[in-house]
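Subgroup meeting minutes
Present: P.N., E.W., G.H.
Scribe: E.W.

1. P.N. recapped why we're keeping a running log of single-chain structure predictions: easier to compare across weeks, and new members can see raw inputs and outputs side by side.
2. G.H. added today's entry (144 aa).
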Amino acid sequence: MQPSYVWFSLAVLLIIAELTTGTFYLLMVALGLAAGGVAAMAGLAFPAQAALAALVGVIAILLLRRSRFGKTRRAGSVASNPDVNLDIGEEVSVAQWGADRRARVSYRGAEWDVELAGDQPPAPGRFRIVELRGNTLIVKPRQG
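Output recorded in log:
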């Protein structure tokens, strides 16, 4: 079997594995393996093929890490992440606040506890949901 077939076969296997993981790192290693296959087709010796495959793979991973696709996202708090809680950013109307900066509002057909975030004085009006803690909506005054 030709050495280039081995390199390209391994690259294809990594691409298939990449489809199951959802990251791009195995794809970058597969690029390195493909470079090793090209080096084998060019007639280079195995040590040169392996060195080229490793070099291309490492450079591809470093470039990926510098791109927006390789940046790790800070998860932060799930309670205030609008990708997890679709209520974040929605608005509620508070008619009256209690002494403890809490109120009860009707939202999505149910009664919810509401707590005012920050140090603003509690006043009736429209508020934006910024966080969910259990069944309590944490709100801030609506901007504009």
